[in-house]
Amino acid sequence: MPTISMFYGILISMYFKDTQQHNLPHIHVEYQDFNAILSLPDGEVIESNLPPKKLKMVQAWIAIHEDELMIDWKLAVRGEPIFKIDPLR
Predict the structure, then answer these.
(1) What is the pTM of this model?
(2) Which of 29, 48, 62, 67 has minimal Cβ neighbours within 10 Å of its Cβ?
(3) Pick from 62, 87, 78, 81: nearest CA to 6
(4) CA dist 26 to 7, 38, 47, 62, Å?
(5) What is the signed CA dihedral for 70, 76, 82, 85, rounded to 10 degrees?
(6) Arithmetic mean of pLDDT, 64-80
């Protein structure tokens, strides 16, 4: 699963062709021993045990990079390489 961004100890990843497990566009988030799956482009929680502060940071990052994330999703579904996205600063 390629990492598309990393900030404040948070890893953001997107699986290639990950449409069978979750049919809607989404990202996978890892922070220490916590994980989340958030939908795109709205950042709604599909699954999460992230600390609330980290979850809000990721949702803010999604809002900033909505267009780039949706382009990466379209590429990933087709099995094409996806692009890195700037971290939250």
Answers:
(1) 0.91
(2) 67
(3) 87
(4) 18, 5, 11, 10
(5) 40
(6) 92
